[in-house]
Amino acid sequence: MSDSTLSSTHADHNRSFWAIWSVIAAFGTYFCMYGFRKPFTAAGYAETELWGIGFKTIAVATQVIGYMLSKFIGIKVIAEMAPQKRAIAILMLIGAAEFSLALFGLCPRPWNAIFLFGNGLSLGMVFGLVLGFLEGRQLTEALVAGLCASFILADGVTKTVGTWLLNSGVTEDWMPFMAGLVFLAPLCIFVGMLTRIPPPNFDDLTDRSERHIMTRKERWDLFRRYSVGLTLLVAVYVLVTVLRSIRADFAPELWRLLGEPAAAETFTNSEILVAMGVLVVNGLAVIIRNNRLAFFVSLGTCCLGFLIISGVLLVHQTGQISAFPFMVMIGFGLYLPYVALHTTVFERLLAMTRERGNLGYLMYLADAFGYLGYVIVMISRNFYPDPDTFLHFFIILCWIAIALSLLCLIGTWYYFTDRRVKPATRIAMQHAD
């Protein structure tokens, strides 16, 4: 075997090793983060109300408001974060989140809900920090698909952990803090792994473009150049985030109203199937080398997700689908566009335009308005005080989101095939050269 062949084989093995390492590190870090964010949603908190509003609704809304504000702050912080500071920032933010959960356990209801605001505020920037280790690479879609699989799977697993702690005698108020302790040690290990990931190599930079920290002016310039297209994509993301968050945070209620109250392991089993399907579909985008083609294929993937949801809702109206396949297929349909936007749409937009920027900025621009929309929906939910109407409320929202999202995706398709975006692309490519 020649020296060149040996060198090529070694390079391939080295690349595969770091790809697997990166997926494990990113998946593990964000999976563990969910252990500090989601377990409290496994509790019912049925005995407490404030001004006629159920305590769980207050708790979820309070955390989401903090999480939403963190996303708006992250538009600046994540876009400007130096790579060498990401790991310590992750540990500091999650430490602050666990401290907030300790205060949640110490203080009486309903006033302890305010500490979930601090919890959400701390955790909202973790995704962008982890994402920064993965973007701008030939394998970014596969790496980020692995990262996104973490929050699909973790949503169910952390509920299972929360339910197990409750069944073991831990009180509802102390359960979130105890769940965080379960995930603390592995979190530190995975963050340590993140720090060992090498930066993008020459081939990565050639295929996907170099990623830069962004000043305020650069962020505004990028948005103005593609304002219509980005606004339409953000609108889709808002609609998907609202539905995905409702399905996640009120899963026990949805299972009950579907006629099959979920056991602890049901949350995990359903999300494993969703994660596997979404991981395969979105991860396959990595085989498309042409950035422009991959961008438009990812828009088609988003449309496919909404069509799947439509089919499930139509079958549900006939009464021919049980709770488990209903929740799995709704989850699959929602996470297809949600993960496609994370893995491919914004990544390939930067790659095909060669714009100076980073994926964290675009994701946090979308995330901020996505969670703002969810907060508005949580407030609107109070117009449906009867908990038995919640499934009906969710289905109505699904149909609204399907219609509006498909219109936005069609508009996005036409916008980015229009000649109006080509001059800015040529300028950016000349600047890159």
Automatic annotation (TrEMBL):
What SUPFAM superfamilies is this protein classified in? Answer: MFS general substrate transporter (SSF103473)
| Any Pfam family | DUF5690
List the residue ranges forming a coiled coil, or say none. Answer: none
Q: Where are the transmembrane segments?
A: 16-36, 48-68, 88-107, 114-134, 174-194, 226-246, 266-288, 295-315, 321-341, 361-384, 390-416
Q: Which UniProt keywords apply?
A: Membrane, Transmembrane, Transmembrane helix
**Which InterPro entries does this chain map to?**
DUF5690, MFS_trans_sf
The entry's protein name is Major Facilitator Superfamily protein
| Native species | Rubinisphaera italica
